[in-house]
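Page 37, continued from 36.
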């Protein structure tokens, strides 16, 4: 008996993601991969997978899917409202708790709660094609599994290598927000006036609706550039903050272009990236400067905290 998901409703931005692609910037290919790395890792851990296995990532509204096949466990991570439908009975689901689904059951991922991304992992493997060592979908470049496209309604997702050790697991974890997003100075920090730098670190910015997996546009007070508002295109990295001529910052996210010609005022530290991407449009944020050595220490602490959470799964 084959096992598969049938997508009844695809959701707003539903894709396959994994750990992403490495060392391809030189040919214009960004990392991609799961936006919220911690929730991605926890999803795989809660169903007994290796932490780098592909999952379904969704934004705002997730998919409604029907399962066909042998029983299997699934889990949803993030701050998500969802239901498990068994024989027309609706069961309210809890994030970070695995559930068993059987032939004919449905999972209705209704919405994320004041956040953006959530993750669905299964105790098995999605039958996917890999490109450059990853199944991660980048819809801007049509790269990855599913022909580089979002998942569509009526699509079938084949499942293989179901894990027979289907012990239910859970984790007591609550997603939290931090008051300020920490950054290190960018390579063009001195292009901006003293007043512009002060505004960047002291004033509040709002996440605009013009945000996706490629980048996050912010709205706020004007950040003055006293040098050049356009520069010769240079390499970009995930989390770098560019400031175009209009003075409103743009943060490069996981599917970002690999070169750009706007001055770079700062870079989000890796330890705060998960919190940043979960800020929905209309959210307010402030930036706080840290030194590079502090950013390195904070990332080591972030990784230790993630491993500690994995060890708390029961």
């Amino acid at each position: 008996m084959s096992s598969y998901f049938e997508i009844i409703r695809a959701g707003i931005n539903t894709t396959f993601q994994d750990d992403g692609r490495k060392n391809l910037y030189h040919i214009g290919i960004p990392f991609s991969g799961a936006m919220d790395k911690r929730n991605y890792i926890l999803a795989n851990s809660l169903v007994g997978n290796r932490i780098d296995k592909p999952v379904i990532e969704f934004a705002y509204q997730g998919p409604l899917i029907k399962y066909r096949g042998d029983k299997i466990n699934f889990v949803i991570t993030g701050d998500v409202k969802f239901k498990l439908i068994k024989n027309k009975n609706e069961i309210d689901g809890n994030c970070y708790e695995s559930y068993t689904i059987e032939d004919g059951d449905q999972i209705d991922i209704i919405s994320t709660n004041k956040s953006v991304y959530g993750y669905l992992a299964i105790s098995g493997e999605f039958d996917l094609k890999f490109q450059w060592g990853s199944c991660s979908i980048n819809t801007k470049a049509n790269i990855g599994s599913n022909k580089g496209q979002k998942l569509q309604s009526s699509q079938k997702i084949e499942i293989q290598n179901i894990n027979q050790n289907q012990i239910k697991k859970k984790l007591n974890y609550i997603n939290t927000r931090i008051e300020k997003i920490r950054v290190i100075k960018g390579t063009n920090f001195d292009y901006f006036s003293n007043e512009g730098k002060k505004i960047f670190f002291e004033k509040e910015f709002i996440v605009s609706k013009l945000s996706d997996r490629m980048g996050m546009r912010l709205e706020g007070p004007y950040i003055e550039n006293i040098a050049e508002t356009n520069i010769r295109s240079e390499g970009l990295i995930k989390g770098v903050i560019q400031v175009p001529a209009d003075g409103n910052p743009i943060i490069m996210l996981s599917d970002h272009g690999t070169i750009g010609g706007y001055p770079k005022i700062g870079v989000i530290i890796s330890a705060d990236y998960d919190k940043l991407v979960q800020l929905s449009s209309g959210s307010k944020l402030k930036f706080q400067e840290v030194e590079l050595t502090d950013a390195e220490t904070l990332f080591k602490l972030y990784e230790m905290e993630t491993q500690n959470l994995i060890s708390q799964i029961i």
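The first helix runs from residue 37 to 46. Flag for discussion at group meeting. The chain has a mean pLDDT of 96.
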